[in-house]
Each structure stands twice: as C-alpha cells, then as structure tokens.
Prior knowledge:
This protein is α+β, with helices and mostly antiparallel strands. It is about 50% helix and about 20% strand. It has a five-stranded antiparallel beta sheet. Strand 2 (about 125-130) and strand 3 (about 135-145) form a beta hairpin. Helix 1 (about 1-35) crosses helix 7 and helix 3 (about 75-85) packs across helix 7.
Amino acid sequence: MSGFREHKIVTACRWLAAAVGLAAASYAAYVDTAWFRYGKVTRPANGNDRDALLDQFMPLYDVAERHHVQIAAPAALTFQAASEMRVEQSPIVRAVFKAREWIMRSHARRQPEVRAFLQQMRAIGWGVLAEVAGREIVMGAVTRPWMADVVFRPLPPDKFAAFAEPGYVKIAWTLRADPIGAGASIFRTETRVVATDHGARAKFRRYWAFASPGIILIRRALLGPLKAEAERRYRSARALATAEAAS
C-alpha cells in the first residue's frame, strides 16, 4: 500500500514539474515576443478599435494593449459598472501585485481602501484627460514603471501630449462602452505607452518584456466579472421596472 502511495506522489510530482516547466517556457516565449514586438505598433487602430479621443493625447506610441467584451447591458450601465469595479477583490490582481513586489523588491503597499476603480486610480496619481459622460474616460500619467516603488504624476490635459521631460514614459488608458442596441454594448479598454527619450525607452522595454504578461492577465481577468456585474445590474433594473409597471 505504501508503494502505491509513493507511486502516486512521484507521479504527482512529475506532473507538477511538467506544468511548472510548461508555464516557464510559455512565459519565456511571451517575454521574447513582447521584446521583439516593442515599438512595432506605432499607428492608431482601425475600425471599431480606433479611439479618436485617446488619439488626441497619444497618436503615436511604443506599446498598445486593447481588450474588449460584448455585454448584454446598455452602454451607460456598462460604463458605470466598469467605473465602480473593485479590482483589489480579485485574487489574480492581488497575486500579480504581490509578485511584482517580490521581484522588484518594492515596499509592501498599504492595504488599499476598498473603493470604486476610478476613485482608486485618482487616489494613486492618475489624472483625467478627457471624458464623455456615461461612455468613455481617458486617464493619464507620467511615471517610471521600472522603479521598485512607482509614482504616478498627473498632468493637465493641455500639457500631456507635449510633455517630453527625459527619463519618463507617458501612459494613457481608457474605459469605454459603445452601444450596439438598446440593451447591449461592447466594453473596450486600451492602454498606450510612449517613452520621452531613448534611455527611458530602453528601460521600459526591459520592464515591459517581463511585466506585460501579468499586466495583460489583469486586464483579461477583469472582463469576465465586469460582464457578469453589468448584466446582473441590467437584469435587476428590468425586473424592478416590470414590478413597478405591474403595481
């Protein structure tokens, strides 16, 4: 019997080692891809992915990440749900942040107050560059992401595009909900980054190569919960409206 248990343990260890090896190989492949793709996306997207509002602040960029999901809820309600996300409640988000703290040897962050996503982003230094009520918001900051303890510095909207102080990257990102009918929408989020000089570009390229898998994982991991929450709110609103009409 003990031999059978030992065989199971050995088999489990082999499977675990294989899984770790596969994950490490996949990560290394992605790092290589991110390194070689850096700086290749230099023009705005076409079609529905294009964001004219974001183009005003960063028409050319070194890196762009775009994600979207279709949601069975009106655009205004979808945008509201996105603005009020509690991202720190996600185990994946917490794990990625903890991994960064360990790898970069940064100081442990003070446990953030649980609050709406946009409120939290403003609190850590992101500034509003532009906004279309109920549809889209563009946030931006200048920073040095390769530092252990990152500081985000907001700029006035009329100063952001022209900012060129050496040693920084400019980051702009959006939350956006496009209507595709009375009760449906597509939620889009896009992040763009551009360095202010060659030195910053070299540092950010190294940082982006190893950090981008975690950053992209966070973006994708939040789409599912956002879809579920926006659709839950829409169902509740419709049920309430039906009940009121029947009373």
